Amino acid sequence: MRDALLATVTEEHATLEAFASLLMYEEKALAAVSPLETLPGIVEKKTELTDKLASLEKTRDSQLRQMGMPAGWKGMELAIADDARLAKQWQMLQAVVQRARRANATNGLMIRIRMNYNQSALAILRGATSRNAASVYGPDGRMAAV
C-alpha cells in the first residue's frame, strides 16, 4: 500500500510541476499586449490539470484511510514519519505547491491590474462621450447629435 501511495504522490508532483510551468506560461501571456490568442488554451489546460490534481488528492486520501491514517495533511505527516522515500517525494511536492502559489498570486495581481486599467479606460471613454457628444462617434458609427 505504501508503494501505491508513493506512486500517487509522485504523480501529484509531476502534475503540479506541469501546472506550475503552465502558470509561468500564463504569466508571459498576461504580460503580452494581446493575450487573447493564448489564454483560452491555457485556461483549458489549467482546468484539466486542476481536475487531475483533485482526483489524485482523493486517491491519496483514500490510500491513507486504507492504511488506517487520517486523510489530508495529518495523514501524510504520519505516513512520511517512517518512510524516507515518501518523505522526500512529499517534500518535493510541497516545494512545488509553494512555487505554484506564488505564481498564481502573481498572475492574479496581473489580471487585477489589467482589469483596473480596462475599467479606467472605459470610464474615460464614457466620460468623454457624455461631455463631448458632438465630437465623438456613437455606437452606430455616426457623429452623435448635439
TrEMBL record:
Gene3D superfamilies: FlgN-like
Pfam family, one: FlgN
Protein family: Belongs to the FlgN family.
Free-text function comment from the UniProt entry: Required for the efficient initiation of filament assembly.
Record's protein name: Flagellar protein FlgN
Species name: Trinickia dinghuensis
Keywords on record: Bacterial flagellum biogenesis, Cell projection, Cilium, Flagellum
Source organism, top-level taxon: Bacteria
InterPro entries in the cross-refs: FlgN-like, FlgN-like_sf
Spans traversing the lipid bilayer: none
Single Gene Ontology BP annotation: bacterial-type flagellum assembly
Lineage: Bacteria, Pseudomonadati, Pseudomonadota, Betaproteobacteria, Burkholderiales
